[in-house]
Fold this sequence. Notes:
eight-stranded mixed sheet; alpha+beta; five-stranded mixed sheet; binds glycine
Amino acid sequence: MAARFNPIIIGSERSEAGIPAAMEILRAGGSALDAVERGLRLCEDNLNDHYVGTGGLPNARGVVELDASIMVGSTRAFGAVAAVKNYPNPISIARKVMEQLPQHSLLVGEGAEAFAEYLGFTTVELLTPESKKLWLKQLETANSESIEGENTRATSGDERYRLASLELVKRMAPHTGPWGTINIIALDQFGELVCGVSTSGYPYKHPGRVGDSAIAGAGNYSDIRYGAGACTGRGELALRSGTARTIVENLRAGQDPETACANALLEARALPDDFRAELRCLSLTQDGRHGGAAGMEGSTYTLMTEHSTAPEFRPRRIL
Ligand code: GLY
């Protein structure tokens, strides 16, 4: 008889909206794939979360565009969608890409929406009154900063990003005009290790901008032999550095999950970037070891085992 693995699930900040239901699936003997999809759907449907799914903050035109991906550790099967409008659960479309379009891995924009329509998924207005209000409010803040100072003054990466975004908004939406993706990684009793990522991406992004969340090796990677890695935060750094794959390569080299994440972050940090902002990593292995790293004091990740009665919060290594 095959050995039974002890189910475990971890997630980034705010994944606690979905992790208990995902753990219920694992406890009942369900698959990591179902658990990750269920957990992320609940996060996508959480109207209080403005960085994923319905209620996510919009792009420079005021339109919400979503990215998501899912990866299975035993086969390295990968499904992803990017820049999807009007469909509230991109993680489910990503899963269907993996299962029903195995000749492809990633669909974007109109093509992804056409596939979702073919599947019979229903559309909704993703921009809620509250997320529109937040979008406009942050825009006003950025506007007053640009009146006070010069676009050339030394600012943090986040501020510079906001100022550059304001230029986009001025061009694209002149009349109306803490980030955070969600990662969930689960191990089921059969030893399958699945990693899922979902996001509305950086607010004020250029329409069509795709971040790391939809890209294998950048924001999401799972390889059952070594472990899984996922990222939140500034996706362009994870894209340029191949951060999720670097985490897994570090695991392969024998590093523990926390160290693997920390060293992957250090590599991304070494890149020049005028828009530098927080990038965070998480990792889980098939033998149930886990860890995370971040730049900001107090950063945590969420954990549940079969024995947890509620989500537990674990510190990430701070660099
Ligand atoms: N990490 C999410 C994004 O950059 O869109």
